[in-house]
Amino acid sequence: MKDIHSHILYGIDDGAISIKESLNLIKKAIKSGYTDLILTPHFRILQGYTCNNANKKKIFDTLKQELVKNNLDINIYLGNEIAINEDLFYYLETDVITSVNNSRYLLIELPFDKEFKNLKEYIEELFNKGYKVIIVHPERYFYYKNLKVYNELIKMGVLFQGNFASLYGKWGRKAQKTLSIMLKKHMIHFLGSDIHHENESTYEKFKDLIPLLEELTNDKEMVKDLIDRNIEKVINNEDIIPYDVIDNEIFIKKLFKK
Q1: Domains identified in the chain, total number
Q2: Which pTM value belongs to this model?
């Protein structure tokens, strides 16, 4: 198994606060069967999470050295979870945003409170600049009352990463059901932990969710893509051909009733 989304890199955002906590999280991942972790600290202007690439790399290299000292056999890679903002293209030209393992792939986070204006235009411009867009945890953007927008984005070439923890209700019933439906419709291309702290039991629960994933997708090979093969392709900067979406126009307004 591989993790495409984590906040394990210490001292940068609201994730791990110390190298000790980073190491403890990595130990939990190894114990749970993970071989590769992508460390994706937040890039959020409004919260001041703007650590530049040089400092991220310095912390990352220190953590890698500690893995060797502690005989922790796992591969780690550097990236960012990038909160989309009106100045995104300016920041992409500076030394503060890291694509996943220096690939074409960007992890993009949408606002939680309201729809981002001109989202499709921004995504199209990212494509024009040679990037590939992965939108993280789409199940948590509750202002989308149906899957129509997501289906349109997939047709554009956008990929989606769901959070494992949403499947057992960490973010509430709406997120749980939305992710379940998206998995059934083959609209999710990766699953990640989005883990922040060692008191979360996330990694230990993931393997127990594999039978549920196989039931939701009705495709064991697709599950392997979600938790391993597609993530490896991102790490290696390879193209991903998504599965065909089932029943394109699936409206889920009833899902969002309390």
Answers
A1: 1
A2: 0.94
